[in-house]
Amino acid sequence: MTTFDHTYDVVVIGSGGGAFAAALGAADSGLSVLMLESTDKWGGNTAMSGGGLWLPNNPLMRRDRAGDSRDEALTYMEETIGDVGRATSPERKEAFVDGIDDLILTAEKYGMQFSRATDYPDYYPELPGGKIGRAIEHVPFDSKRIGEWWTTCRALMPLPAKTDDVWLLERAWSTAGGFARGAQFAGRVVGGLVRGKRLVGIGGALAGSFLDVVVQQLGVPLWLSSPAEELIVEDGRVVGVRAQHEGRPVTIGATRGVVLAGGGFDHNKDWRQKYHHIDGAPSGSPGSLGGPIAMAQEVGAALELMDDAWWGASTMALPGADPGFLVGERSLPYSIMIDAKGDRFANESESYVDLGHHMLAHDKDGTYWLVADVRHARRYLRSWAMDPRASKAMAERGIIRKAGTLAELARAIDVEPTRLQATVDRFNGFARTGVDGDFGRGNSAYDRYYGDPTVHPNPNLGPLEKGPFSAVRVVIGDLGTKGGVLTDADGCALREDGSVIEGLYATGNSSASVMGHTYPGPGSTIGPATVFGMRAARHIAREAKAAV
């Protein structure tokens, strides 16, 4: 029998949304909990993200009488996800939908406040069961409430941004709606300062509020710079972990269970080559190295979906910086994406996972560019052009290239000028008619969400006619890897034969996603991560009660 330095009912590995939800559920159930974070910053990919949670038929929708149902949610999930393995079983889809109320109502009980992104559509809203407004987010949060903890949060946005600020602020000086939102955003910032608050939004708001509840209200300890290294198994049951803490090895007992919620293997280049056959260009937490998945595999856990990720197009990164994940910029008019030959290859406005899959299938080692005319630069706020110093460095390294004519730009990016011109001429014809005859850009409500409503007849299709022209180098990026430990409807880790590994649970990117190879709607990473984190905690509590 192992002698432990510390003992808790539950040990949670990680500090993102799934980890906090598991800790919240366990502590709410009266269990003692310890959270272990491998890096010196907490919050994981959740803190770095847009902070949305895709939660169909959630309590906020019912309060608003927004018109959703369990059956519609499951129909839509079957249409979009299908059956691509055990991680996407009907039982797991039902468990996700059925676990949403417990997550939100428990969080609200402790003061967490959510709002609906009422205009944000599912990513395939035209399919049976598709809706607009299923995503929710935490309202802007006063980071002063968590004191010094905020200094170690991994959040990227120190301002009170909300999900729909992103697409409106992109056109803050080109549309009335964008200008109005810009004024509202400025008012939100100033209003917080006047009231003595330091408001933060999106992922920082969600992570900050979780920490406020779990660590400060419920008293759950969170150890930073404390990587878990090995699961301890006795009599076939996981009973604890070996970890590092304050520079020393430590053994921690988990009398009721260990929850793996420490992210995927985004930044593990050996695993990326093994499973994805590319180095990857991750935008997530550098602590996502696959450690929790490896520990689970060592004790017999089955893995699924290891060949997939939450893909998307990203701008090529400067040395020492992260890639810039592209969402709205590629949907705006007066721009196209091309391959190394100068050809379009996909609907630039489609969901980022779909575009990433198309880039991989088209040429995973190829060169891609986002090409735009001057109106794209003058009318819209673009992520890669927000910091003049970074833009200058990108230009010096050839990541951004500009020219007065399309022919000159083609030569600058090593594309045959006549071929690029032919591609642009064909696209411009589609822009004038309003119908993309090649890839259907602008046909979906999701495409149009990020378009410019002042551009007619299609808000996603503006012709490339006015110089100077620009091109920014685009690579296959991701928001994290999608494969990991196979779990059941309650987050219990499973062996290859389907049997349960007693005492071991997983959620988030440490587990194989219930979303399969797709991305049904905004927040399809954090939504299921938090729901299955809560379900794991409730299962642990039921097992503990039964044992007593």
Q: Please identify which CATH superfamily of the domain at 311-478 we are dealing with.
A: Succinate dehydrogenase/fumarate reductase flavoprotein, catalytic domain
CATH architecture of the domain at 311-478: Alpha-Beta Complex
Helix fraction by DSSP (H/I, runs of at least 4): 25-40%
Task: Give the integer mean of the pLDDT values.
Answer: 94
Instruction: Please compute the radius of gyration using only Cα atoms.
Output: 23 Å
CATH topology grouping of the domain at 311-478: Flavocytochrome C3, Chain A, domain 1
Judged by helices, strands and strand pairing, the structural class is: alpha+beta
What form results from the Cα inertia axes?
A: globular
- How much strand? 15-25%
